[in-house]
């Protein structure tokens, strides 16, 4: 288990006022006496009660549980007799029975007498009489597992109960009669499981007045349907299931004013590419793996953001053509060879302007990790942008290319390089940012070691890099070189404690944020909090347990933090040690203690967590914490809001304590 992956906790569901006490995991209960059921009802009154470990219920047990008020989850039940269903129908709150895969008419009639939300997502098919019985249910009904709706009455009920969003993406078939009812829905209708539509059904759905999602369709033959999709006033239209498209349909879809994704297309005819080039927004054609000259020429005229992430190689004439792309952004993330300087400039500018519409985050990282070769001309263009540059796909560097890359003023990732000679090392030593060389296997040349030791900022090496004694002596005297020489039984208490304080702080902030989000959405017409409450209750219990674990670990390591200690023999700590979380090099500890090394606290913290990244924590977690956060919707540990964050204050305090420790001791 890598606890390092838990730095950023973003809860995508909205929360409710559940109990703050950490309680037992009720899903482990496999048998239930009536007195125990009554106790659980009292304990979880007004909160979610999840008993997924139960596979059967007696009438008396069901009657006891029916006294519970809140969300009752019994997804372990696979069979439900009518008398048990009748008892559960008296429950005053939402009920989930997602483990049921079939219903008898009598059971359906009993459940339909309930007056609260009922989830039966395990059902894939329903007999007509069962479907008609469920249609009589007076509250909201979830049947997300259905592959076909055979009852017009049931379709009518589903439409009426979901005036905002109706997700029927489990459907694989749709009759014209049912389509007529669904077309009356006025909100967003999701039918992403349908791969084909008969002409009459397509015509009916084209009359739907709300938003329609058909991401599973492999082909659209109805012009009316294509026009309806293009007229939708949504942010994006995803039709990634399409594997073929006609000129007429392409012409209609090109009129769509939002982000258009057609990633299922693997080939384009010249006439279709010409039609799509008229689309003026975001256009993703990342299913394409090759381009003809005519298609590339058409796409170069596109005036929005264009994604061609399926392209791995380009002949020179096509590269030059795409470099003239008239839109503001062009992405080719899987390109393996980049020779054209103008195309390199176009791609680099696209990353530097990402994400769109966020001027405060105008400098995103330049992701060129798929590149295996790059010309000096192309490299000279991409190094001009002062941001993180990822070139981890490069396996070797010539001294001239290294000299060009060293002029880059931001972080430079070259972790794919396994060997370098002295001339290349001397060129890289002139780099002024953070340099990743964690792919180096051997450093046996003293001249290479001396050159790297002259780096102006910080170089990260791998803990497993093999080096001569002379090279190690050079690096031990150079605080610029970090990441090597970890001892598996030694750690820095300060860094470990600060790390766990951060994780705990982020978790608490996200819980509070989620509560605020729920309150903000409660006044939105048609907003259903039932499912969000269900997901949140499960997440919160897990989250609370993690918070307690992190707080306990932080307290454990919060003692004397100015020296190294041996790892405890407890199995949990051994696992954490094997994951690399506690390993801190002598060089990094020295950097923390040397107050004159860095004037900028953020820079010191960033370098510190770059080391953590190198020894086991995942790159996405590190990026989310230490680079500008991409969304303002949820809290995170990042430089723009760092001063007001509880967790970062803890980290700051620990570093400052280390910084002045020797001064205090001298006094």
Which term fits the overall shape?
flat
Share in β-strands:
5-15%
Describe the main β-sheet briefly: 6 strands, parallel
- What's the number of helices? 26
Question: Mean pLDDT, nearest integer?
Answer: 77
Oligomer: single chain
CA radius of gyration is 30 Å
Helical residues, percent: 25-40%
Strand order of the largest sheet: 15-17-18-19-21-23
**How far apart, in Å, are the first and last alpha carbons?**
43 Å
| Structural class by sheet pairing and helices | alpha/beta
Structural overview:
It is a single chain. With 667 residues, the chain is an alpha/beta fold. It is built from 26 helices and 25 strands. The strands form 7 sheets. Strands 15-17-18-19-21-23 form a 6-stranded parallel sheet. Helix 14 packs parallel to helix 15 (376-382). The two termini are 43 Å apart. Residues 1-23, 355-363, 486-492, 560-589, 591-605 and 608-667 have low confidence and may be disordered.
Provide keyphrases for this structure.
667 residues; alpha/beta; 6-stranded parallel β-sheet; 5-stranded parallel β-sheet; 25 strands; disordered C terminus
């Amino acid at each position: 288990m890598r606890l390092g992956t838990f730095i950023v906790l973003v809860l995508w569901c909205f929360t409710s006022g559940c109990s703050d006490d950490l309680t037992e995991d009720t899903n482990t209960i496999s048998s239930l006496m009536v007195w125990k059921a009554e106790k659980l009802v009292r304990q979880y009154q007004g909160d979610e009660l999840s008993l997924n470990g139960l596979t059967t219920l007696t009438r008396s047990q069901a009657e006891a549980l029916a006294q519970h008020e809140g969300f009752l989850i019994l997804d372990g039940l696979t069979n439900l007799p009518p008398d048990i269903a009748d008892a559960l129908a008296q429950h005053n709150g939402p009920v989930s029975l997602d483990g049921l895969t079939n219903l008898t008419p009598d059971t359906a009639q009993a459940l339909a007498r309930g007056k609260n939300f009922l989830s039966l997502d395990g059902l894939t098919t329903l007999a007509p009489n069962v479907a008609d019985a469920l249609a009589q249910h007076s509250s909201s009904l979830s049947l997300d597992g259905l592959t076909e709706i055979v009852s017009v009455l049931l379709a009518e009920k589903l439409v009426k109960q979901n005036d905002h969003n109706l997700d029927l993406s489990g459907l694989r078939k749709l009759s014209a009669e049912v389509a007529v009812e669904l077309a009356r829905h006025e909100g967003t209708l999701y039918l992403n499981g349908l791969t084909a539509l008969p002409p009459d059904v397509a015509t009916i759905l084209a009359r739907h007045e709300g938003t329609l999602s058909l991401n599973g369709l492999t082909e659209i033959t109805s012009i009316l349907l294509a026009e309806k999709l293009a007229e939708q006033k949504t942010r994006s239209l995803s039709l990634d299931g399409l594997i073929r498209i006609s000129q007429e349909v392409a012409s209609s879809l090109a009129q769509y004013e939002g982000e258009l994704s057609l990633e299922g297309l693997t080939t384009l005819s010249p006439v279709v590419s010409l039609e799509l080039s008229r689309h003026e927004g975001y256009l993703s054609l990342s299913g394409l793996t090759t381009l003809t000259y005519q298609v590339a020429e058409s796409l170069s005229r596109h005036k929005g953001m264009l994604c061609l992430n399926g392209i791995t190689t380009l002949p020179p004439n096509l590269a030059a053509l795409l470099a003239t792309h008239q839109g503001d952004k062009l992405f080719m993330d899987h390109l393996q060879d980049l020779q054209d300087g103008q195309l390199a400039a176009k791609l680099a500018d696209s990353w530097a302007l990402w994400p769109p519409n966020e001027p405060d985050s105008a400098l995103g990282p330049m992701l060129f990790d798929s590149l295996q070769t790059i010309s000096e001309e192309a490299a000279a263009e991409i190094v001009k942008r002062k941001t993180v540059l990822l070139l981890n796909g490069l396996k070797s560097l010539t001294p001239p290319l290294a000299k060009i890359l060293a002029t880059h003023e931001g972080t430079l990732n070259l972790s794919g390089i396994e060997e370098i000679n002295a001339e290349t090392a001397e060129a890289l030593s002139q780099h002024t940012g953070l340099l990743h060389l964690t792919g180096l296997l051997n450093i046996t040349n003293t001249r290479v070691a001396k050159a790297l030791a002259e780096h102006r900022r910080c170089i990260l090496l791998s803990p497993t890099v093999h080096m001569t004694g002379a090279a190690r002596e050079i690096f031990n005297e150079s605080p610029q070189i970090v990441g090597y020489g970890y001892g598996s039984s030694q750690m820095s208490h300060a860094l470990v404690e600060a790390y766990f304080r951060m994780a705990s702080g982020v978790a608490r902030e996200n819980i509070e944020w989620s509560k605020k989000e729920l309150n903000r959405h409660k006044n939105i017409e048609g907003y259903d909090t039932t499912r969000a409450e269900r997901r949140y209750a499960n997440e919160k219990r897990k989250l609370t347990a993690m918070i307690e674990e992190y707080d306990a670990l932080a307290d454990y390591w919060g003692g004397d933090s100015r020296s190294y200690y041996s790892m405890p023999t407890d199995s949990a700590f051994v696992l954490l040690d094997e994951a690399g979380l506690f390993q801190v090099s002598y060089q990094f500890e020295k950097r923390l203690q040397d107050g004159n090394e860095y004037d900028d606290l953020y820079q010191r913290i960033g370098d510190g967590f770059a080391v953590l990244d190198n020894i086991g924590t995942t790159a996405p977690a590190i990026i989310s914490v230490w680079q500008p956060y991409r969304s303002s919707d949820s809290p995170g540990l990042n430089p723009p809001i760092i001063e007001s964050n509880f967790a970062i204050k803890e980290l700051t305090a620990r570093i400052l304590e280390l910084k002045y420790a020797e001064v205090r001791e001298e006094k």
